[in-house]
Amino acid sequence: MDLSAIRAAVQPGQPRVLVLANQKGGVGKTTTAINLGTALAAVGERVLVVDLDPQGNASTGLGVDRNSRPVTAYEVLIGEAEIKDATIETSVPGLSLVASSMDLLGAELELADFEQRSHRLDNALDAFTSSEAGRAYSYVLVDCPPSLNLLTINAMVAADAILVPLQCEFFALEGLSQLLHTVERVRTSLNPDLEIQGIVLTMFDKRNNLSDQVAADVREYMGDKVYRTVIPRNVRISEAPSFGKPALVYDYKCAGSKAYMKLASELIQRERDIKHAAA
Q: How many CB atoms are closer than 10 A to CB 173?
């Protein structure tokens, strides 16, 4: 893989805010946030992962335990801290984190009394990405909870685009249609520039004919929005979070790690094409 060509693909400027979202749980959303962020950092990009899921799996999977999170996404959302105050450097060079907190479980009720409650993350990210510290990043990846709540809405309002991890299983298209409906509602009322950046097929099992059929159906339905790279079912990917490491650090040579490196390359190329089309 030509890493120098990949690095050259990204143009300087404000970071792109990509939200990883799917209303269905267990689709590899957090795993993709962790490992795609690590893969992008591995080719020289600065990446900030924002963990908006109260479960905090992205934070734990990046090796940041709950005792090492003095300022979190919760404080950012309620206005007690700025993103720069909540940013933690992970063990992966070039990869930073705004960690999750269990306090996010009650954030929806607390935010109900705030003005522009759907724009709390958007306002915080605007201030950050306009600063010198924020412009040092190429990407902000926001990991959402597996539900359509105010946290997910905040992420979608703040997003430039949505990256959708989609498990290769029987109900995949049903879940995708629900998500597309949600995106359209957010686009109509809150964020007219919101778009689907791409769909990543995850947990692909080449031994299972159903995986091939689901992949074919999704590609027929969504066309070029679906990434060519698919993420396989892989034991090493499943093991890595228990060691507080991304799969690419835990076992760089496993099939899952190689797939995420290919996904990062494809994402950067897609981002370059988007910027050229907008120029």
A: 15
Smallest Cα–Cα separation from 198: which of 232, 170, 159? 159
> What DSSP line would sit under 82-99, residue for residue?
-HHHHEEE-SSTTEEEE-
Confidence of residue 114 (pLDDT cuts 50, 70, 90): confident
Q: Which whole-number Å values give the CA distances from 277 to 18, 165, 166, 271, 274, in the listed order?
A: 18, 24, 26, 10, 5
Spell out the residues 6+ positions from residue 56 whose beta carbon is closer than 8 angstroms to its own: 66, 99, 100, 101, 102
Tokens, residue 93: 């060079």
Neighbour-count burial of 244, counting CB atoms closer than 10 A to its CB (0-12 exposed, 13-18 middle, 19+ buried): middle
Stated pTM of the model = 0.91
- 10 Å CB burial of residue 93 (0-12, 13-18, 19+) is exposed
pLDDT in tens, 169-223: 877 777 788 888 899 999 999 999 999 999 999 988 877 778 888 888 889 989 9
Between these two residues, 140 and 109, which has the higher pLDDT value?
140
The gap from C-alpha 201 to its chain's centroid, in whole angstroms, comes to: 14
Give the residue from 272, 3, 44 showing the smallest Cα distance to 137.
Answer: 44
